[in-house]
Amino acid sequence: MFTDKETFKQAFLIRLETLCGKQFEESTTRDHYYVLGHMVREHISRHWIATNERNRAQKRKQVYYLSIEFLLGRLLGSNLLNLGVRQVVEEGLRDLGIRLEDVEESEADAGLGNGGLGRLAACFLDSLATLNLPGHGHGIRYKHGLFDQKIVDGYQVELPQQWLRHGNVWEIRKEELAVEVNFWGKVEVYEQNGCLVFRHIDSKKVMAVPYDMPVIGYGTNTVNTLRLWNAEPAKTFPLHKDVMQYKRETEAISEFLYPDDAHDEGKILRLKQQYFLVAASLGSIVRAHRLQHGNLHQLHEYVAIHVNDTHPVLAIPELMRILLDEEGMSWEEAWHITTHTIAYTNHTTLSERLRMAIHLFQPLLPRIYMIVEEINERFCRELWERYPGDWGRIEQMAIIAHGVVKMAHLAIAGSHSVNGVAKLHTEILKQREMRLFYEWAPHKFNNKTNGVTHRRWLLKANPELSALITDTTGSRWIHEPETLIELKPHASDPAFQQALSAVKQQRKGKLAARIYEKTGIRVDESSIFDVQVKRLHAYKRQLLNVLHIMYLYNRLKEDPHFSIYPRTFIFGAKASPGYYYAKRIIKLIHSVADKVNNDKQTNEQLKVIFLENYRVSLAEEIFPAADVSEQISTASIEASGTGNMKFMMNGALTLGTLDGANVEIAEAVGKENMFLFGLTAEEVLNYYEHGGYRAHEYYHHDKRIKQVVDQLVNGFFPDVADYFEPIYDSLLTQNDEYFVLRDFAAYTEAHERVEAAYRDPARWWYMSAVNIAHSGYFASDRTIAEYAVDIWGISPSM
Ligand SMILES: *Cc1c(COP(=O)(O)O)cnc(C)c1O
């Protein structure tokens, strides 16, 4: 139905009638979206079935990627692109007077994630399918994804996201594959044929109903599956007076995505979500394996289960439960299979935070808790034999200690692979955060530097740049992103530079139009577009960026000889609803924007824009238009970052610290092709360990700093009273935990280097081209190929 324009049009119009019951004339954009989505599903259904069939028939090892978040964004455009039918559809619709772009924009973002971690999972799915790898996602079908952000008077307001309001064309409900999940109740122990048998009784049952979504690879017939679980009342609905409460409690499990776990610790609902995901996923994985193999003795040879961060770590005791209680295996065999099946990715160096209080855990999951206790006992015994008498070490490594379960310790003990997400991050895990575990089992530790799918973030988001690349070096880069390096010889070619800058100009114009539409502010399209888009977090240091803008403003006001190359500073960031400090920073950005944008003396040179509701679809408009990529986290804290990679691919230059994957970007492009500044990870970690930093010294000795910090509280922003006082206090009273003031001077100086480079177009566009040329390494195809070989032991199947 997509073979040519005419066939497509015919098929489209017929389905418009059958699916929507409408003549073309009365149809709406949403109808067009719905019909197109259906046509794609119809088109791929044979391949979807064939992929599943092949997986069954070939008995190949499968990988299941368990993640509490999948930040997919919109799917229509990328599905059409991956199927290679986007152009036919675009032209066919144009004949009918429909703009494909409008249809695509009518799709709600599937925002089932907070940020980097969830987006990584989505990029991985794309690469798995494209590389014909048998890899599938398991997640939760949240009714409401990450909240929609509205800005009212400069303050963030959260609205529930309603992505399912008009249904979801991509999903298929598979009620017959539902899995029962048990909470609460108690464990009965009795003896049978000389063995202890455990039975979980009086539990509250929840049905996990899978909704399957196709994951379509680029230019391949492989269609993998993302299975999202929905929580529903069990079939044997308990008919008592609490029936309404039971229904509400059950449905609450898949109702909301938690907006950032760092600020919602110890919540019972969160633990419920985690076990719900794990029990449903393992239930369905094990059922499929049993059907094929009859038993689970070889599970680890045919199944790899990946635990994305600690949220799904209960996969370890849950698999043990299945093998022990349902299969009757010995502990030793069950442990062998479990640890050889499960692999774990660590996403944060603050692993010590990932704890769950026993008093919450034990009553909710009594049998699982018993198993975790046994795992802990055996683990500590093993440590005791290895390190006799070293109580301190064992206490620090224990899985259960001082009333909490340490989820990261359970993940390391119960898996065969522990990976960090960038070289620096993995080194910090090995040398500091998890040093004792690394000493205990060095073979488990490995690095897998993150990547992003260049098909969404370059090919789809930036067709203009993609066309230039293909015109210059051919289209091999789409399948083999590392061949982008072939651009490098063109980096100093004036004609190529000209074309590159024209593409950037075009996309800046497009973003400027969007900015005007959304904010009513006109920005100078020839100014430097300097962008910081990411979640709002103190460690990501949006504050450093803002304070620097305040300094530029002050200087422009006070120093008649001072001028700058015009800048447009663009922000996008959601703050977790309970993270009050972050919300104050959002307000600060708006207060500064108000001042700067409305001051005739400065607003030709300086503009500050906050784009509300930062999400995948908005990100796709921003990256192609960026000149400067702000990656300014306090060194050592950002595990990897992936925004940095998306910017790089789109030819933006990084202004950043040597943190996360910035380090590897610098290794790839050379330090001279980015703008590095500030403390190194080593220096930061030394400060944290030994002290010695005194923020007030920087405040007193640098007039620029004193001025901007004072302005937070001295009435400079008259409308906010003392709203910014906690920010002021964080810097001075609390000694500036993230070294904002320490790095201020270096950051200012780095901005001066940015400006000097931008004033020299030959240099700037050379640097930009070099960044694009080296971005292939940061494609998730490379990352996934490494996971496939080093961790999962899977190979392409087609
Ligand atoms: C890539 C991405 C992120 C992660 O950005 P970082 O700069 O790595 O923190 C967060 N949100 C969205 C919508 C993204 O696309």
UniProtKB/TrEMBL annotation:
<dbReference type="InterPro" id="IPR011833">
    <property type="entry name" value="Glycg_phsphrylas"/>
</dbReference>
<dbReference type="GO" id="GO:0005737">
    <property type="term" value="C:cytoplasm"/>
</dbReference>
<dbReference type="GO" id="GO:0008184">
    <property type="term" value="F:glycogen phosphorylase activity"/>
</dbReference>
<comment type="function">
    <text>Phosphorylase is an important allosteric enzyme in carbohydrate metabolism. Enzymes from different sources differ in their regulatory mechanisms and in their natural substrates. However, all known phosphorylases share catalytic and structural properties.</text>
</comment>
<dbReference type="InterPro" id="IPR035090">
    <property type="entry name" value="Pyridoxal_P_attach_site"/>
</dbReference>
<keyword id="KW-0808">Transferase</keyword>
<feature type="modified residue" description="N6-(pyridoxal phosphate)lysine">
    <location>
        <position position="646"/>
    </location>
</feature>
<keyword id="KW-0963">Cytoplasm</keyword>
<keyword id="KW-0119">Carbohydrate metabolism</keyword>
<dbReference type="GO" id="GO:0030170">
    <property type="term" value="F:pyridoxal phosphate binding"/>
</dbReference>
<comment type="function">
    <text>Allosteric enzyme that catalyzes the rate-limiting step in glycogen catabolism, the phosphorolytic cleavage of glycogen to produce glucose-1-phosphate, and plays a central role in maintaining cellular and organismal glucose homeostasis.</text>
</comment>
<dbReference type="GO" id="GO:0005980">
    <property type="term" value="P:glycogen catabolic process"/>
</dbReference>
<keyword id="KW-0328">Glycosyltransferase</keyword>
<dbReference type="InterPro" id="IPR000811">
    <property type="entry name" value="Glyco_trans_35"/>
</dbReference>
<keyword id="KW-0021">Allosteric enzyme</keyword>
<protein>
    <recommendedName>
        <fullName>Alpha-1,4 glucan phosphorylase</fullName>
        <ecNumber>2.4.1.1</ecNumber>
    </recommendedName>
</protein>
<dbReference type="Pfam" id="PF00343">
    <property type="entry name" value="Phosphorylase"/>
</dbReference>
<comment type="similarity">
    <text>Belongs to the glycogen phosphorylase family.</text>
</comment>
<keyword id="KW-0663">Pyridoxal phosphate</keyword>
